[in-house]
Amino acid sequence: MSTFLEEVNGRMGGVPIQRCFHCRKCTAGCPVAFAMEYNPNAVIKMIQMGMKDEVLTSSTIWLCASCETCVTRCPNDVDIARMMDTLREMAIESGASKGEKNIVKFHEAFLSSIKMGGRINEPMMLVQYKLKSGDLFSDMGLGLSMFMKGKIKPVSPRTKDMKSVREIFKATGK
Asked: Does residue 40 carry a pLDDT above 90?
C-alpha cells in the first residue's frame, strides 16, 4: 500500500514534492494565501506527514487560483499548482467533504462549458452553476449590472478546433 505522499507524487508526475525545503517563497507570492486555511508549503508538509483527510477536506485546495506564481518562485521547481489540481481530483474521487461547498459545483460547470464549446460560455456556465448550487438570486443585481455594461455577453464564441478539445477530455477521462 502506498503512502499519501507516494500517491500524490505518482499522480502528479514531474518534480517530487519532497524536494520542497519549506522556504515559503510559494506562500509569500500566493495572491490568495490570506484566505487559505493552510498555506501552500503547509499543504506539502501535511502530505509528507500523511494527513490525507485533512488535506482533501480543506478549503485550501479549492481556493488555489492555479495562477502558477508559486511555481515560478519555487527554487526547486516543485509544481504546487499541479499538486493542487491533483488534490482536487483526489478529493472529488474520494467523495471527501469539501471545505468550500459550492466550489466543486463551479468547477463542474466550468469544465462542462469548456467541453461543450471549447471556451467558456458565460451565460450557460452561470445557469448551470446556479442550478447546481441552488443559489439562484443572491447576486442577481450584480449579474444584471454586468450584463447591462456588456461584461457578460449573451452568446459566447466557440472554438474552431472542437476535435482537439474532445481529445483532451477523452485523454483525461473527463
From this structure: yes
pLDDT tens digits along 3-22: 999 999 999 988 899 999 99
Query: What grid cell was written down for 85?
Result: 489540481
Residue 9 CA to residue 5 CA, distance in Å, equals 6
Instruction: Tell me which amino acid residue 174 is.
Output: K
| pLDDT class of 143 with cuts at 50, 70, 90 | confident
Burial of 14 (0-12, 13-18, 19+ CB in 10 A): exposed
CATH value of 4-94 in 3.40.50.150, 1.10.10.10, 3.20.20.370, 1.10.1060.10:
1.10.1060.10
Q: Which of 111, 159, 102 is nearest to 131 (CA)?
A: 102
